[in-house]
Amino acid sequence: MTALFGIDLKDRRVVVAGAGNVASRRVRRFLAEGADLVVVAPVATADIRQHAQHGDLVWHERGIEEADLAEAWFVLAATDAPEVNDRVAAWAEARRVFCIDASDASHGSARQAALSRHGDLAIGVISTGTPDPRRIRAVRDALAAHVDAGEVDLRRRREGHGRVILVGAGPGDPGLVTVRGRQALAEADVVVADRLGTAELLVSVPYDVEVINVGKSPDTHPVPQDRINAILVEHALAGRTVVRLKGGDPFVLGRGGEEAHACIAAGVPVEVVPGVTSALSVPARAGIPVTQRGLSTAVLVTSGHAGADATAVTAMAEGTTVVVLMGVAALPDIVTAGLAGGADPATPVAIVESGTTVEERVTRGTLADIVRFAGETGVKPPAVIVVGNVARPDLLASQIAATPPRSG
Ligand code: SAH
């Protein structure tokens, strides 16, 4: 009978006999576990040779010998000769070292589990009967997909230390949150959410998870930043896992740095889960590459809250792509400053409102006429303003099909 244990291979000697395709694949797994890896084989795949060159493992270029097992905690017999694998498995047995026999799992004392990792959780699947790698991988894939989709309640049941996870929710399309972001949401006891970018993700949060909305919206006063920081710290110090769900990326014009700092100052552990920032993804989804060979090799992301600063003006004048967030109200000032600073009035401008959502709308013009067009169409926040040649309507936009936002 085979039992399934979590064994820690970090810095422990693992000896692999063989360096063909099977060994190559398994070697990656041992490397990911941080094992002290020794591969013994007369010939090796390019992959293993490269790992050896980088110092990730030691490769002995010869056939396996019994003495190679001397320091081993674990052995993998994965040569292309079943009789060699069986011999290695017998040596391991005599030395009381666990061994996977890749040619016939029933000849070894251990079996390879199909494995997947999800934050601090690992899912391992083995079969205790006839070895059937594809079958256990299918089971693993099904379970992993379930967890990664955020469909499993990952909240900690045992009282532990509280923590804060700053999660970037992406620009609004729930398909644009990261896998780790979804996992973090499934771990949350409390979610402290912005309004922008988070609505569709919050739909799937269980009813007994407390959701605290701190985002700005037209009919509520924004919660001051100090208060948000205090909410995060208070809940974490009470032992909860707090997900701070922020639009886009937490560290792009989102005051995530201040929130992380408040947590650190209070001794609360913080994890940061990067997000897909609206600054790059909203233009991309609208068919605007923020850099493009021959047009612009740099992009400046800036806040338009207080108009255009000197850096933005210089960038506009030099033809560098400028992406302005929070710039709808100050659009006339930004345009005026750009033109006064020497930007070409014919510089294309695109304004993308509510990018990646069903409300997405793009208004185009040039520095000379965009203020008028924006007034006519009634542009309103949230919107990303792109100034530069990459915003030319004929570049890509007409050829790229807007991907319909997913629901749920
Ligand atoms: N941290 C966020 C930005 C926060 S500032 C990020 O990385 O995306 C808020 C500004 O982001 C809004 O005023 C708007 O300029 C922009 N924004 C966020 N989501 C948007 C969306 N779906 N469409 C257009 N602009 C968006």
Automatic annotation (TrEMBL):
Coiled coil: none annotated. GO terms for molecular function: NAD binding; precorrin-2 dehydrogenase activity; sirohydrochlorin ferrochelatase activity; uroporphyrin-III C-methyltransferase activity. Pathway: Porphyrin-containing compound metabolism; siroheme biosynthesis; sirohydrochlorin from precorrin-2: step 1/1. The keyword S-adenosyl-L-methionine applies. One of its GO terms (biological process) is cobalamin biosynthetic process. The active site is at residues 194, 216. It comes from the Bacteria. SUPFAM superfamilies: NAD(P)-binding Rossmann-fold domains, Tetrapyrrole methylase. Transmembrane segments: none annotated. InterPro entries: 4pyrrol_Mease, 4pyrrol_Methylase_sf, 4pyrrole_Mease_sub1, 4pyrrole_Mease_sub2, CobA/CysG_C, NAD(P)-bd_dom_sf, Siro_Cobalamin_biosynth, Sirohaem_synth. Residues 163-370 form the Tetrapyrrole methylase domain. Keywords: Cobalamin biosynthesis, Lyase, Methyltransferase, Multifunctional enzyme, NAD, Oxidoreductase, Porphyrin biosynthesis, S-adenosyl-L-methionine, Transferase. It catalyses: precorrin-2 + NAD(+) = sirohydrochlorin + NADH + 2 H(+). This is Uroporphyrinogen-III C-methyltransferase. It comes from Demequina mangrovi. The lineage of its organism: Bacteria, Bacillati, Actinomycetota, Actinomycetes, Micrococcales.
